[in-house]
Write a structure and sequence with these properties.
single chain; 6 helices; globular; 13% strand; TIM Barrel; 4-stranded parallel β-sheet; alpha/beta
Length: 134
């Protein structure tokens, strides 16, 4: 079994029981080192998680040994699907740049409705192309 550390609190005041807000830098360093020493293999992040991707990139010397999981940007079902494809690509490559990576282990569709809307199959096909690019 693999252990995955979620990173929403790296970049946002996230969580129903979160009283302390976004994780402070010194606590984040300790948390990442603990996760690394404890056998966590993955960091699960998303562009939608505030500045979590930036923080992962800023701490590259610690995070470089983790495989990354990120998510597609939320798309607008009212927009032309080609614009949505461009947006997904733009956000994905911006995420890679922020995290100082050339690729990620896994790309999740953040909102499942994104592939069930009209032209959802084209979005899926595009994700297959994106997979070859990164």
């Amino acid at each position: 079994m693999n252990y995955i550390l979620g990173t929403a609190q790296f970049g946002l005041d996230y969580g129903i029981s979160n009283n302390s807000g976004k994780v402070k830098k010194e606590d984040l360093v300790k948390l990442l080192l603990f996760a690394k020493e404890s056998g966590f293999k993955y960091l699960d992040t998303a562009n939608a998680y505030g500045d979590s991707e930036n923080r992962i990139g800023e701490m590259y010397e610690i995070t470089k040994d983790f495989d990354l999981i990120t998510k597609t940007a939320h798309i607008d079902p009212d927009k032309n699907y080609k614009k949505n494809l461009e947006y997904i690509k733009k956000q994905f490559f911006e995420s890679l740049k922020k995290m100082k990576r050339e690729s990620v282990e896994t790309l999740l569709v953040h909102n499942s409705i994104d592939i069930s809307i009209q032209n959802g199959e084209k979005i899926y096909q595009y994700l297959e192309e994106l997979k070859k690019m990164a």
